[in-house]
């Protein structure tokens, strides 16, 4: 006996929760400056951690070239901007599936106070932007010896 596979028109649609999350993200989280920003703008994966000497930020920017990336630090706010460009023109009707977001994006995060932004170093390797920002002497941890009386 053969088994039948039923056609389900709702199988590939978003769940209500996913649809509401995406609506909220597109409306309030992703910046709209007169154009529709790619959904990946708010979803740019970031790792931010600190050591005794510095704060390190790693951002995943697959498909983005270093020349198309801009990093700025204003006060305690780090902003990463970039643009993912189309390599060559492909007609819309030739696509079978299109999921990559192309276009401009930006993401800002607040950094801890007391960093030397003018001494920051940025490197780009294998689609990962690594930013190292040294701490000023005032915010570096210091050991205090406790004396007995």
Which keywords apply here?
149 residues, mainly beta, Immunoglobulin-like, 1 helix, 7 strands
Q: Strand order across the biggest sheet?
A: 1-2-7-6
Average of the residue pLDDT scores: 79
Name the quaternary structure: single chain
Fraction in helix: under 10%
Helices, strands, pairings?
Layout (H helix, E strand, L loop, with lengths): L15 H14 L16 E5 L3 E7 L8 E6 L2 E8 L18 E8 L10 E5 L2 E7 L15
Antiparallel strand pairs: 1-2, 2-7, 3-4, 4-5, 6-7
Characterization of this structure:
The chain has 149 residues and is mainly β. It has a domain at 38-86 and 101-137: Immunoglobulin-like, CATH 2.60.40.790. 9% of the residues lie in helices and 31% in strands. A 4-stranded antiparallel sheet has the order 1-2-7-6, with no helix packed on it. Strands 3-4-5 form a 3-stranded antiparallel sheet, with no helix packed on it. A hairpin with a 2-residue loop joins strand 6 and strand 7 (128-134). The longest helix has 14 residues, at 16-29. The protein is elongated, with a radius of gyration of 22 Å.
What is this entry, summarized?
9% of the residues lie in helices and 31% in strands. The protein has 149 residues and is mainly β.
């Amino acid at each position: 006996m053969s088994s039948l596979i039923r056609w389900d028109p709702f199988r590939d649609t978003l769940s209500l929760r996913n649809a509401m999350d995406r609506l909220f993200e597109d409306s309030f989280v992703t910046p709209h400056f007169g154009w529709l920003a790619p959904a990946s703008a708010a979803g740019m994966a970031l790792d931010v951690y600190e050591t005794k000497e510095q704060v390190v930020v790693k951002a995943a920017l697959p498909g983005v070239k270093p020349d198309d990336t801009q990093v700025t630090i204003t006060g305690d706010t780090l902003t990463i901007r970039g643009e993912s460009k189309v390599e060559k023109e492909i007609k819309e009707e030739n696509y079978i599936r299109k999921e990559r977001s192309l276009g401009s994006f930006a993401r800002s995060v607040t950094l801890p106070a007391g960093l030397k932004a003018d001494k920051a170093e940025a490197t780009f390797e294998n689609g990962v932007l690594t930013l190292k920002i040294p701490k000023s002497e005032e915010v570096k941890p210091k050991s205090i010896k406790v004396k007995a009386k």
